[in-house]
Amino acid sequence: MLKKFKRVSIFLSGCVVFLPALLSGCATSPPRDSSNLCEIFYEKEDWYDAAADVRDKWGVPIHVPMAMMYQESSFHHDALPPRDYVFFGLIPWGRVSSAYGYSQAKTPTWSDYVRETGNSWADRDDFDDAIDFMGWFIYKSHKINGVSKWDAYAQYLNYHEGWGGYRRQTYNQKPWLKNVASKVKARSLRYATQLKSCEEDLNKNWFWKLFS
């Protein structure tokens, strides 16, 4: 009887250790199909709730920050920028910037966001916080540089170059960046079209979904 009890105890303790790790992995893994916004939100319904909150809070259309986030991190929660190298490119030496997480927000800009919003517990590897940061940045780009919140192309240029860099048109010296911004725009338009086909369903609460 004692041996049987010990085996059960070991099994349960293993579950206690393993289950949180399993759930954590599911919570932070990228969507299986990131090409379709409906599939993203069906797989991760809490992401839709967070994106809808950002839409209501900052007046930002959902498809714009989602397209920008895909470009920045491919929805990897712990995404990092490329390594920097010294000594003729032979020795790795840190990262090329302090960008991190879903939004690839740099540390100084993230600190500005935390200070202005009072979201002191925010983490860059948390989807809700990351998309709220992007909503805040898009809102600020609209206020500072007059860029439409729906203009994914110009919003991405602001996001990459900063508000001052956008005003100085530094992106004109970076044809590759303008090409990337065009890709973000194209993805945002696809996401917008896809979302129209499923948003009504996504807006149903959990109770009604049981009977749909």
Automatic annotation (TrEMBL):
Which Pfam families does the entry mention? SLT_4
Q: Which InterPro entries match?
A: Lysozyme-like_dom_sf (IPR023346), SLT_4 (IPR045795)
PROSITE patterns reported in the protein's UniProt record: PROKAR_LIPOPROTEIN
Answer yes or no on keyword Methyltransferase. Answer: no
Q: Does the keyword Transport apply?
A: no
Keywords, in A-Z order:
Signal
Q: Which domain of life is it from?
A: Bacteria
Q: What are the Transglycosylase SLT domain coordinates in residue numbering? A: 16-198
Which segment of the chain is annotated as a signal peptide? Answer: 1-29
Name this protein carries in UniProt: Transglycosylase SLT domain-containing protein
> What organism does the record attribute this protein to?
Alteromonas aestuariivivens
